[in-house]
């Protein structure tokens, strides 16, 4: 780093995104992208929107916000569109966290939470998952801290019920509870319905996974009108034009073509369940994932070895060095053909390591 870099960031460990190598063509099962392209309606909408790139985009994302609000059964004042769900999360840490309002989240979860906390000078506590990798809701009840929980959790894929989520919210009425639902369209029940009952709930969502828009960078938050006003104050103090015109058009078109995406989610779920069984039959321990990925470890092959051997063979999965999960790999659910290729190469690696 340069001699000009602020000392306030000296302990900051940045988030490391999944690799995007360009050295050869890979079967990419490492970053939880959809294996399906956007619908034709979305592609056409983006092309048309490109004609107006000489003008600033709508800072309120008015049409898209109204469309999202209508679909999820809330009012426009309850929705804030953002540049991916990472932005809504960062806004929330900035708006609601300080020395007197620390955060708590699981020790094994989305790696951006501690980064956002440190970036915003927010103290935080990590709470250990159970031995079976589940989040214990009792660990978060009445803890007098803001809470953020990914549901389903990443990288385990395990999900809390709506009843368990509500228990956490109801017991922390003086703190903000953020439920990060990046993967909820692949299993579990959304907490969005609870914002009408609780003013301390913020639900974070993304178009990256179930709506095939990872490259478009589109997310949103749903919460009480007061919470959304707080987040807008942060947005308009940092980046008012945060969602570009083409992405707004893509999101609006996607909301008008929801069946295409629902059908894709159903196919991803079908493939996920099929290959959870296939891997279990090959002596893998596989969590009961409700996300668009599988979290698995082999009984004899270390996670780092499996990752590197698959990469040599042109298949990318995600490996984490964190001690508790270092023997696991996270496998994005691809098409049936992509998963067959994964399985074929895994069988070769297993055979070589007998």
Brief synopsis:
Helices cover 35% and strands 14% of the residues.
Set out the fold topology.
Blueprint: E1 27-28, H1 40-49, H2 62-72, E2 79-82, H3 84-96, E3 103-106, H4 112-119, E4 124-127, E5 146-150, H5 162-170, E6 177-180, E7 201-206, E8 219-223, H6 225-236, H7 245-255, H8 258-280, E9 284-286, E10 293-298, H9 303-312, E11 315-316, E12 318-319, E13 329-332, H10 336-352
Helix pairs in contact: 1-7, 2-7, 3-4, 3-6
What does it look like?
This protein is α/β, with parallel strands linked by helices and 354 residues long. It has two domains: 17-36 and 259-352, Aspartate Aminotransferase, domain 1 (Alpha-Beta Complex), CATH 3.90.1150.10; 40-256, 3-Layer(aba) Sandwich (Aspartate Aminotransferase, domain 2), CATH 3.40.640. 35% of the residues lie in helices and 14% in strands. It is built from ten helices and 13 strands. The strands form three sheets. The chain has a seven-stranded mixed beta sheet, with helices on both faces. The termini are far apart.
């Amino acid at each position: 780093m340069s001699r000009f870099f602020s000392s306030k960031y000296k302990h900051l460990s940045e988030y490391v995104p999944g690799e995007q190598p360009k050295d050869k063509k890979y079967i990419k099962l490492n970053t939880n992208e959809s294996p399906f392209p956007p619908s034709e309606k979305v592609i056409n909408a983006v092309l048309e929107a490109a004609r107006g790139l000489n003008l600033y985009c709508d800072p309120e994302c008015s049409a898209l916000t109204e469309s999202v609000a209508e679909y999820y059964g809330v009012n426009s004042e309850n929705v804030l569109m953002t540049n991916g769900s990472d932005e809504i999360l960062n806004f929330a840490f900035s708006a609601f966290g300080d020395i007197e309002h620390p955060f708590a989240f699981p020790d094994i979860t989305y790696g951006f939470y501690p980064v956002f906390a440190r970036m915003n000078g927010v103290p935080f506590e990590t709470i250990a998952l159970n031995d079976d990798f589940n989040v214990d809701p009792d660990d978060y009840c009445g803890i007098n801290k803001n809470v953020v929980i990914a549901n389903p959790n990443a990288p385990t894929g395990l999900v809390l019920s709506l009843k368990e989520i509500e228990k956490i919210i109801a017991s922390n009425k003086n703190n903000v509870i953020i439920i990060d639902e990046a993967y909820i369209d692949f299993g579990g029940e959304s907490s969005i319905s609870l914002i009408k009952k609780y003013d301390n709930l913020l639900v974070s969502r993304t178009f990256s996974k179930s709506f095939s828009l990872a490259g478009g960078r589109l997310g949103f938050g749903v919460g009480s009108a007061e919470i959304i006003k707080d987040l807008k104050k942060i947005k308009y103090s940092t980046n008012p034009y945060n969602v570009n015109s083409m992405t707004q058009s893509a999101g609006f078109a996607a909301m008008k073509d929801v069946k295409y995406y629902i059908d894709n989610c159903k196919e991803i779920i079908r493939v996920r369940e099929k290959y959870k069984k296939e891997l279990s039959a090959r002596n893998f321990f596989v969590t009961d994932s409700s996300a668009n990925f599988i979290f698995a470890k082999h009984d004899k092959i270390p996670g780092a070895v499996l990752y590197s051997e698959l990469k040599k063979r042109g298949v990318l999965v995600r490996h984490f060095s964190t001690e508790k999960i270092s023997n696991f790999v996270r496998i994005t659910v691809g098409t049936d053909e992509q998963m067959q290729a994964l399985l074929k190469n895994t069988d070769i690696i297993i055979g070589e390591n007998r």
